[in-house]
Structures are given as C-alpha cells and as structure tokens.
Amino acid sequence: MTSNRVPNVLSPAVRQRQLEKKLRRILTMLLEGKGHGNQKKACRAAGFSTPTYRRYKEIYTHGGEEALRKSLLPPSCRASGPPHDGANPRFQKGAAGFA
User: With CB atoms 3.0 to 4.6 Å apart as the test, which of 18, 73, 89, 94 could cross-link to 77 if both were Cys?
Assistant: First the structure.
C-alpha cells in the first residue's frame, strides 16, 4: 500500500519564514501574558497551551530571544559544540585494552 503523503521537503527560505512567524507568535504571546497578567487569554489568542507558555517563558527569561530561536530549531540544526570525528573517546579507551 503506497502513501499519498507529500514528503516534507521545504526550501531553507520557507523554513526560515516559518520559524520567524512562529517566533513572532511566541514573543507576542509572552509580551501579552506579561503585560495584561492574563496568561491563559494570551495562550488562547496565540494558539498555545499553558504548559507550552511556561516552557517558552522559562527559555526566554534565561536566554532571551536567541535561546528561544535555538529551541525552535530541529535537533539536527542545534550544533552546540565543535564538530567531532564520530569516534567516542569513552569507547576508544575500552577498545585500547583489547588491542
């Protein structure tokens, strides 16, 4: 049985616009919830749940807009450290004893 779904292949420009749009919605929700004091109303207007609001608020208060932007990226795009050669040093130590 074949699937009629279209593969999710978007150009980088389209993905960037979607990310910016979502980021604007989140920032608007955070500012409205902070300004009016009614978080539930701000969540409903933006289309997010209250736990999601709290998670985004925590990320935003600790790291600002840049941390929020990084949290929205897929895990494959969140390179946090220098690239590695694929060899895990923990396993290299163990393999050295067998040589």
Answer: 73
